[in-house]
## 1
Amino acid sequence: MSAFKIIRSQLKIIETEAGLLALLRIYAKTDGGRLTDFGRDLISSAKRSGIKQADIAKLLDLSPGAVSQHYNK
């Protein structure tokens, strides 16, 4: 497989993952930036799975403090 095809294939994967991340953020937060029930459930699930607060904050585009409030409940 040529380098061009490999790069193009990898770019498609990245674009798909970026789209999924955008959808995740849409469902996890309101337009005002508050967490939805889905977002709170996602944080709870991430906590049970051992995912670090900082990683959740980056994933959902939240401040670490906002995640900490829900993570420690």
## 2
Amino acid sequence: MPRLADAEIVDYRPVAELERVYPMGSIRKISGQLRFDGQVSARGNLTSVTYQLPAEHTSDDAFTAARQALQQQGAELLFWCQARDCGESSLWANEVFGNAKLFGADDRQAYLLLRMAEPRNDTLVALYSITRGNRRAYLHVEQFEVAAPLGELLPTSATLLRQLKSTGKLELPRLAGEPQEAWVTLVSRGLNLDSSLRLIVSGVSAGAWRDALIGKGVRAARLETGALDGKGLKIEVIR
């Protein structure tokens, strides 16, 4: 992942073997316990670095640049939240990342958990960006190499929708065959979170995917079939 020009490393933690839990939902504290809807937990080797960004770069700029760089390497987005959808920044800073520098405004934060593409698909990358009350902006990056195979990990429906609305497309190269029930449910839920979007479904099995999504309650009028080639499944927003 390219480092932003003039960004300063303010915290670096070399490789350490440990048990790690990454939230896949908004976090909150109830009766002294950290709670979130989903998670990925595993044992492995963790490396982390925190950058303080120069005044001309916002935390959103750095977060977007990092996300795009990782997606260009084929990384899959597992969970993505922004602003108050993430929960309290103080909990992310102190409870999840153990770094008080990352405590800032709840509406100026973003978190993303990604899984790298094969052959590094047992490596997770976590990004957390924040702007503090003093307007200093930070980007925290963790790379976690898992000791045992991760197996199948599914993103959240809201993450698929956020990706679709932010980038205009959803590319899922691993979904090359006939529609899988778990993925059909996941994608249809994401699409139905915003019923105003009209979409083009492309890929070798585009017709089968369109039918399967309609079967899960996505209105047929919202879905068009695109090119019947390419790698996996691709869904694009009709502008």
